[in-house]
Structure formats: structure tokens, C-alpha cells
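Sharing a chain and its predicted structure for anyone who wants a worked example. Both blocks are below, sequence first, C-alpha cells second.
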Amino acid sequence: MGYKTYTCPHAARCGGCEWLSVPYPIQLSRKRAMLEELFEPLGCGVDAVIGMDEPIAYRHKIMTPYAPGREGKPRLGMYERGTHKLIEVRECLVEHKAGRPILNSIAELAQGFHIPAYDESTGKGLLRHAIVRVGKGTGQIMVTFVVNRKEFPRKKAFVTALRKRHPAIESVSFNVNTRRTNAVLGPLTMTAYGQGWIEDEVCGCTFRIPATAFYQTNPAQTEVLYQTAIDMAKLREGDRVLDAYCGIGTIGIIAVKQARVELVGVESVEAAVEIAAENARVNRVKNASFVCADAGEYLTKSQEAFDVVILDPPRAGASEEFLASVLVAAPRRIVYVSCNPTTQLRDIERLMPAYHVSRLVGVDMFPHTKHLESIALLERN
């Protein structure tokens, strides 16, 4: 019996799914082999990569750039592989079906409202990007416009017209990015309709997700990722747990609900810390506190003792100060969740020989791509 493969009319040009023509079981085998090769110097085994049952329509965050088009209608779609040239994409195999019709409607409405698309070459124009977020557990939809200045003509009428076409939209925000940069979001976000956030459900908990907060794109695999990390921590009732780089508090709050531990979450982004505290209240979690601080500075200055440390840093990995302070704190276990196994390996090597890797597993958050998240369990020697 042959393997099932997926087809997409845009695959030859789109820069998104470079492994689409590769049968999914082979994709997972390749990703496991990549981890095995990378971590071979540590002599640790690698579990089979945890994949999806059906690796399509998994992206619940759907985004497009806009560019000037004919007769004032903005063009939208995906960037062609290796370029900033837009190719028209009306549908996408890996996106939630609700997203692309909303993005297409925005382009049509922009033409009618005479809203010019942003031109990367000149820095002029108003509409830069739009982002649609769909809650997997709740079905709630949030739209975020990224614009080139604070003033948006007939904003209220534009939002009303969009919601008339798509009444399931529960929140609309405008993010202002005036910089000549490839970074999508700017520093200022204004709510135009709704609360400025939607809710989603993960591992039995409810989380509020603001327009610009980091939240995993693939919610089905997010549950797998978080539950695997918490299971690997082998938490005991009463453990003191540090959730470093905690974001809006997802992993830590789930851990508290499941294991009745005492949690301290540390995050350097103040807005994320405020949402994390709100998410704790929403889930009726009382034995959790959240601190706005650099994780390394916090652990160094506080000199608190923790039984387990969970960290999920950005792609650049953890700071040297944080790793050094972990060695001083000497927790029983460290669970390292990473979106970049290369920096994860570097950081783990800094924790040796005080710790050894007792389990390493990959979770496929982005099928049909080379990207892989990995979870390492480190235990004290």
C-alpha cells in the first residue's frame, strides 16, 4: 500500500509547505532523524516524533500581507518562495477554512472604501497585513489589521461592513506599524470592536488571547506539546514549579490544574504577564503568581528554590544568566520546550554535567515543513 500525499495548486511557487509532496509518515521519520543527528553528541535516544492524524487545516492563525493592485483593490496571498513577490492564494490546504474568506473580504472592502494597500518599496499606503485567529475549542474569531498610521478613514463603517459579511467575528483590533521593516506588528494596538481578545480551550483550561499575544498556531498539536511536557515533568503535589518565558501562562496554569503544584511564572513582556494573571483567575487557579522580569535576573536575585523548572524560550534560546541560575537552583527536573532544537542543544550542553537528558521527543507543530518543536527532560545527576 502506498502512502497518502497531499496536493496544492500553489505548491510549486508558495514558500509555505516545502515538504508537501513527501508522504507524511516519511516527513515524521525525517524529523526524527534530524533530531537524532543533532543530539548524537549527547548519546541520548530520541522518541518517535508525535504527528497529526490528519495534517491539514491545522493553522488557526491565518495572515496575509497586502500590496497595491489594479483599480485600487489590494493584492493578497503568500510570498513566493525566497522572495517578497505575492502570489494569489484563494484557499490554503493547511489553514482553517474560516480565515482566507475574511482576508479576501478585507481586500474587497478596502477597494470600496478607498483604503490603499501598503507599498514596501515606497513605505506609502495604509493597509499592511491582516491576521485572523480562530479558537479551536471555542470557534471564536478575532481579526487584527496592521496599518501604517493610527488614522484609518471610516474605521467604524469598515468594521461594521466586515462583520456584516462575517458575523462570527467577535473581536477586531488595529495594530499600528509605521516602521520600514519585515516585522509584522508594531507597538500600538487599538480595539475597534469587542474585547480585544478571544478565548480558546487547551487541555481543559480556558485562555484569553489578545490580538498581539504569542499563542501557538496549531492548537491541536499545542495540546499534545503541553501535555507531553507536563507528563515528562512528573510533578508531585506541592512541588514548586518555575515556568520561565511563560508568555500568557498556558503551560504553567495547565500544570497547576492537573497536579496541584505551586507555580511562579516569569515573563519579560508586561502585557503578557497581565494576561497570564487574568488567565489564572479565569481558571480559578490561586496558587500561581506571575512576575514581569527577565528570567535569568529573577532567578538570580530571588534565589528561590524550585523542584521543577519548565522553560519555553524564543528561538534564540535561554540566556546564559538564566542557565547559570538554574544550575545554582538545582531543581530535580528541567523540562525544556523548544521551537529551535539547535539552540536547545547549545543550552543543554551548558547544563551538563550537572544534568543529563533522560528523554527527548519531537512534536510536529508544522506538518509539510522542516520545522519541529522538541521537548527535552533533564534530570539532575
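Comments welcome. The first strand starts at residue 61 and ends at 67.
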